[in-house]
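Progress note, project year one: complex with 2-phosphoglycolic acid.
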Amino acid sequence: MSRPKIIAGNWKMNCTPAETKELITSLVASERSDTEVVTIVCPPFTSLSAASELLSKSSIVLGAQNLSEHESGAYTAEISASMLVATGVKYVIIGHSERRQYYYETDSLINAKLKIAINTGLFPIFCVGETLEEREAGNSQEVVSGQLLNGVNGLSVENLKNLTVAYEPVWAIGTGKTATPEMAQDMHKFIRENMAKIEPAIANSTPILYGGSVKPDNAAGLLNQPDIDGALVGGASLSADSFMKIIEAA
Ligand code: PGA
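Model obtained:
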């Protein structure tokens, strides 16, 4: 079963609307029409409108970095799934380790966010990954399978078809340390086996992205692995040049 290659840029808390315009204009200018790689950019909330307009004639797809688990109402400062859809957003990152670590997002909150995202027509990029301590203690697989199982709890087969998983070892994010292609492949294969246990029908079709210090010089080695279907790129997605090089390596 062939899966699409996906390269997603997680801009994190970077880029004002003016900076977004500059970066997207460069990306669109160097966009290639002969590629089958699905390219996604995830700017911060305040830049989504500007990005959406600039991408209206492009094949680059718009993503967001978070959303509320609630539909609407008195939840000061929160952004709902339907607000994202109305702004032209298609994908949404859910369960990023920075949200788990700094904003205390739990598996059950992440589960609620996955449900509302899918029910509103968004495609979640669901992040899982172990910390350095957990890896050194030999618990990586247990942690990742727990995050997976709890995250997708109660999702139907139809729901699961809209899911993209991102394996992001926490020790590799923003640190310049990358998992070797073999280490990443081992975990991706393990994730796919877990997906098969959750729902055999979707295991082969679920894209699993790798994230954590992906750069132009290490992208090809990672992306050539059989179970690595793309990358979730942080730092290197903030330069059009390095992001395009990663797309070319896919
Ligand atoms: P990084 O971030 O590429 O800067 O390590 C990846 C991520 O956190 O999604």
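The two ends are 17 Å apart (CA to CA).
The beta strands are 6-10, 38-42, 61-64, 91-94, 123-128, 164-167, 208-211, 230-233.
No further modelling is planned for this target in the current period.
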